[in-house]
Structures are given as structure tokens and as C-alpha cells.
Amino acid sequence: xxxxxxxxxxxxxxxxxTTIASCKKKKPTEEETLIPSSGYVLGLKTTSxxxxxxxxxxxxxxxxxxxxxxxxxxxxxxxxxxxxVGNKYxxxxxxxxxxxxxxxANSSLSSTGSFVFDRLDALTNDPSGNVFAxxxxxxxxxxxxxxxxxxxxxxSITSTQNVVLNVLYNDTMAQLNMWPTQTYIExxxxxxxxxxxxxxxxxxxxxxxxxxxxxxxxxxxxVSTFKDxxxxxxxxYGGSPAMIVDENGNHYTFSTCSLAAGFTQSTKPSGxxxxxxxxxxxxxxxxxxxxxxGYKMLTGTYVGNGKVVARVIPTGSDNQMWGAFSIDNPICxxxxxxxxxxTFTLVNDVPAHGGQxxxxxxIENGKVFISVNTGTSAHIYRIDPSNASxxxxxxxxxxxxxxxxxx
Length: 407
Prior knowledge:
The chain is mainly beta. The chain has one domain: Methylamine Dehydrogenase, Chain H, CATH 2.130.10.10. It has one helix at 4-14; strands at residues 40-48, 51-59, 66-67, 74-75, 80-85, 88-93, 98-105, 108-116, 121-125, 131-134, 145-151, 156-163, 177-186, 189-197, 210-216, 222-228, 243-245, 251-255, 271-275, 288-289, 295-304, 307-314, 333-338, 343-346, 361-364, 367-373, 378-384, 389-396, 400-406.
């Protein structure tokens, strides 16, 4: 079975990016360095001797100075994702299939235990304080996903259930894997978005429909599938979030329909669909066509009052497979979207950037912080959605910030 790092290495090699060489890293230190009582825990991706290295570091300021691992933080062992639940930070190592918990305690960042996993994807926090995860069907050898519950207190997987997301089984989808992109839990129901692909080749021969499955929660019994043909599948590999929620409980889904996000064809316009609060269907009267503005949407974050800060790419740049992941030819831009008026405003203060593999958004005091790598330098940027402006912040001594956690 392929591992996540194997696929990413293949993709990055294809793009002509720096090859992620295999290298033996020392284990994360357990030394407890005193840190201020408030600040940030950040996932820092760096490059050393031609190989990527990742660290959990701390910082007190995102807008000045340099974010660096020198004398700071805890080195991770592999290719990482990160997730926050309560005051605990999960460092999910997809090279070695080990998840380690960290937290700030007694003015220090320290580990709180770890567990081994097979696959963990599309994570969300449930109402009881646990983490729910859907695993992806790697390699095309199986159509099964797994629904898993993680107890962050004991740092263990407490339940696992095999699930086939493709419950439709029509002629064109029967031999395709379903890649989960995001989940959310509402009113005792679990919602799972996904896209069809050939698991071995990563070809996407069916890109003309957005899909969401509904299950009971916590029972995890299948309820229904709802879909919409005005746009393509929701989300993409390494591109969370793909679904957001507003103050009124309405959810909005992002469909990229882009070669730059790994799709092998584009048959519908990139756009946003709406799921009204408490509903298990798309709102037929709502479709925000992002492509009508000359851009395709990758992902975004909701900041209130109908505003979304989104990462987008010009439609004219959508001709390079996995182009959003590359820093050799940066094509990503930032825009402010108004979900209510369906307007699009480009943030010209943020330069074209790349390397967008699961890079996060952080919201604080109505502003949005992002990681930007132009191919020649990397910085944090702070976006003001009220006037679609941005300010360059701290330099990044490395490639990108892979998580922003405020403590």
C-alpha cells in the first residue's frame, strides 16, 4: 500500500520541485523550554541538505521577526499534518504513521502520548471532545474507507468502522475510489464530502458532480447521498477546508475543478454551493460561480458577515497538473469573497505564491493570517477582509507554516 509521503514525493518530483529525500532524523526532543504564557504553536516546514524537515515551534509575534526552528521547538519525524482539539495539538506523521499529542503545560511545549494509525484523513472535532476521522482508500486496492474515533485524552483510537463511501454504484463510478475531503457534524448527522478517482493512477474521469454523504452520528449508519451537477467535486487532496459554516448554521462547499489541484480534467465551473442550516440537500437557488470572475477557487476560511478569505488561481494558469503545490511557478492568489452579494475582490497586496499543500488559515481579531512562499522568500501575511488589503509579517526561515495554533 502506498503511503502519503510516497504520493507527495511523486507529485513534487513531477513538478520539478525539490525532491523530498529520505533521511534519518533524530527523535523529537522531550526537553521542556520555558515559553511565554501566551503565543502561538506553529508547524514549520524547512529544507536541509535537500530534504524536508518539520518542527513544532513557538512564537509570540506573527508580524515581525523571523519564525525559525533554531533553538526552538520540537523536530518531527516525517511528513506532517496537524490538528487542534481543545488545548491539545495533534502532530500526525504520515511517513511513520504515528500521531503524537502536544500541549502547553507549565510554560512548556511537551508531548502527551502517541498512537499508531493506518490512515487518518478529513478530521473534525465531535461534540463530546473526541476527534472523528475518515481514512482515504490508498493505492486503488480497496474501496473501503474507515470511520475512526480518536480520544485525545488517552491518545488512542477508540473505534474503527469500515465504510464504502461510494454507495451509488452507477456504471461510471463502480470502479472508482472515493477520496474524503472534509466532514462536519450537525444535529446528530455526519456529513462527508468526497471526490471520485482511480486510486492507483489518480486520474479523475468523473468531475461533473458535487457529492455529500450523510450518516447518523455517533451511530454512523448511512442515511443518504445528495449531489449537484452545477459544479464539480468538493475539495481536493491536501486542500482543507472544503466546507465552511456561517453564523446562521448554513454550510458552503468549495469546488475547485482545477488541474492545478490535481484533477486530470475540468468539466464544470469552479464554484460554491450552499447547504441551508438543518438541511440534507443543496440549495437549488444558490450557486456562486467563482470562474465567472476569471479565477478558480482552491480553499478558504470564513471570517464573518458573509466574508470568506479564499486562495484562488487565475483560470489562465490552470494548465499545470498540481500547479498549486509548486513553488517553481507560483500561481496562487488571495481574494475576499462575499457569499451574500456573490462578489469577488482580489487582494493585490499578497504576491503570487505556491507550495499550497494543506497550508492553513488562522483567524484572529477579524484578520486572517496565511503562509506565503513566492519561490524566493516566505513570509506570514495578515489579510484584512473589510477592505481586501494585506500586510507582510514575520519572515519564515523555511518553506511554509503548516499550522497556526493560538494558546
